[in-house]
Specification:
single chain, four-stranded antiparallel sheet, 388 residues, alpha+beta
Length: 388
C-alpha cells in the first residue's frame, strides 16, 4: 500500500493553518472585548422636575438704623453690647451731662428773672394806666410802660424757649434705640468723643424680625419673567413662586420667602436690576450683612433631564454620546433649556425617550465611535430633582 506523502503533508498544513487562524481570531475578539472601557450609561425618559436657579444674595434687616448722637459729648456709659436684642426707647449710650445740666440750670434761672421782670412791668403798666385815665400823666408815658410790659413778656417767652432747648439737649445725652432690633458693632466706648458729624455711627440697630435678601436679575431674566413683555412686571412678580434661601454653610433656610419688588431701572454698569425677597426671621437666625443664594424654582412637565457631566461643549454647541445597540457611541448634538440648577440640564431637543447616553468619561475616555462595555449608572449619576 502506498501513501501520497505530498497530499498528506498539504492536508496537515491546512489543518494547522486553520487552527492558527481560529486561535488568532478568538484572541483578537477577546482582546477587543477586554479593551472596551466600562462606562456608566443612563436610559433617558420623560418626567416632571423642579429645577432651581441660584442667584447670589446679600441679607439686610428690614431696617438698619445708624445710631448717631444729636449733641457732642464724651461717652460716659455704654448700656448695651454687640449682638444684644433691644427694644424701642431703650437706653444705648450716655454722654457727659455736666455742661448740659448747667445749661438747663442757667435757662431755668433766666426764666425766673424774666418772670419777675414781667410782673414788675405789669405793675408799672397798671399804675400808669390808672394815672392816664385820671389825666395825671400823658398818653406817651402810659404807652412807654405798656411797651416795656410787652418787651418783658417777649423776653420771658425767649427764656422759656431756651429752657426747652437746654432740656432737650440734656435729654439727648441719653441715646436711645429708635426701634426694636439687634445691636451691631460698637466702635467707640467710654471716654470717646461722640458727635453728630462723626463719620462712624455709635452703632447700628437692625430690625431682623423680617429680613430682605437682595439679588440681581439680568435683562434676559427680566424679559423671561415678563414673558417677553406680554405681562407687566408687577403682575409677574406677584405670580412668582415662593423662593428659598441657601445659607453660607450650604444649608437651606427652613422658611420660604416671597419676591417683594424688582427695581424699575436696569443698572447700565451691571446690566441687571435689583430684586428684593422678604423672609420671616422670628428666631433671629438671619443677620443683617450675611450672604447666601436665592433659589428660584422652575417647574418643568414631561421633559428629559440629564446630568450636566454627561455633556460636553464644542463651538458653542452641546453634545452627548448616545450608545447604540452594538454599544458603540456616537456624538449627538442637543439643545438645553437655559434654566438649570448647576447639576442637571433640561433637554429641549436631540434626545428621545429610550435613548442611552454615556454619563462617565465624557471628554476623556469616551470618544466618537468607540465601543464601550456599558454598566448601569449609580445613584450619583442619576439626575436629581431638587427637594420640594
Amino acid at each position: 500500500m502506498k501513501f501520497n506523502v505530498a497530499n498528506t503533508t498539504g492536508v496537515a498544513l491546512s489543518s494547522v493553518l486553520m487552527l492558527c487562524l481560529t486561535a488568532c481570531g478568538g484572541g483578537q475578539q477577546q482582546q477587543t472585548q477586554a479593551s472596551a472601557p466600562e462606562i456608566a450609561t443612563l436610559t433617558v425618559n420623560y418626567g416632571n422636575s423642579e429645577l432651581e436657579s441660584a442667584f447670589p444674595a446679600t441679607i439686610k434687616g428690614r431696617t438698619d438704623i445708624d445710631i448717631r448722637p444729636q449733641v457732642t459729648g464724651f461717652i460716659t456709659k455704654v448700656h448695651v453690647d454687640e449682638g444684644q436684642q433691644v427694644h424701642k426707647g431703650q437706653a444705648l449710650f450716655t454722654l457727659d451731662q455736666v455742661q448740659f445740666q448747667a445749661a438747663v440750670d442757667a435757662a431755668q434761672a433766666a426764666v425766673k428773672v424774666a418772670e419777675s421782670a414781667v410782673q414788675t412791668a405789669q405793675l408799672t403798666a397798671n399804675n400808669k394806666r390808672k394815672l392816664f385815665d385820671k389825666n395825671i400823666i400823658s398818653e406817651y408815658e402810659w404807652q412807654m410802660a405798656d411797651n416795656a410790659l410787652t418787651q418783658a413778656k417777649a423776653q420771658l417767652s425767649s427764656a422759656k424757649a431756651n429752657l426747652v432747648t437746654a432740656q432737650k439737649n440734656l435729654a439727648y445725652t441719653v441715646v436711645t434705640s429708635p426701634s426694636d432690633g439687634v445691636i451691631g458693632s460698637i466702635p467707640n466706648r467710654e471716654g470717646s468723643l461722640a458727635s453728630p458729624s462723626s463719620a462712624t455711627p455709635l452703632t447700628t440697630v437692625s430690625d431682623n424680625s423680617e429680613v430682605y435678601a437682595y439679588f440681581s436679575l439680568n435683562e434676559k431674566d427680566i424679559l423671561d419673567l415678563t414673558k417677553g413683555g406680554t405681562i407687566s412686571l408687577n403682575k409677574s412678580v406677584s405670580e412668582m413662586p415662593e423662593v428659598s434661601l441657601r445659607l453660607a454653610n450650604g444649608e437651606v433656610y427652613p422658611l420660604k420667602g416671597k419676591v417683594a419688588t424688582v427695581s424699575g431701572v436696569i443698572d447700565n454698569t451691571t446690566g441687571a436690576a435689583t430684586v428684593r425677597a422678604l423672609f420671616k426671621n422670628g428666631q433671629g437666625m438671619l443677620r443683617s450683612g450675611s450672604t447666601g443664594s436665592i433659589l428660584i424654582p422652575h417647574v418643568a412637565d414631561s421633559v428629559i433631564i440629564i446630568p450636566q457631566k454627561a455633556t460636553y461643549e464644542l463651538q458653542d454647541r452641546r453634545f452627548v454620546y448616545v450608545v447604540n445597540d452594538s454599544n458603540k457611541v456616537a456624538s449627538t448634538p442637543i439643545t438645553v433649556s437655559p434654566v438649570n440648577d448647576g447639576q442637571n440640564y433640561i433637554v429641549t431637543s436631540g434626545l428621545k425617550a429610550g435613548d442611552r447616553i454615556a454619563v462617565e468619561g465624557v471628554g476623556t475616555i469616551v470618544r466618537e465611535g468607540i465601543t464601550i462595555s456599558p454598566k448601569a449608572a449609580g445613584e450619583d449619576n442619576q439626575p436629581q430633582a431638587p427637594q420640594q
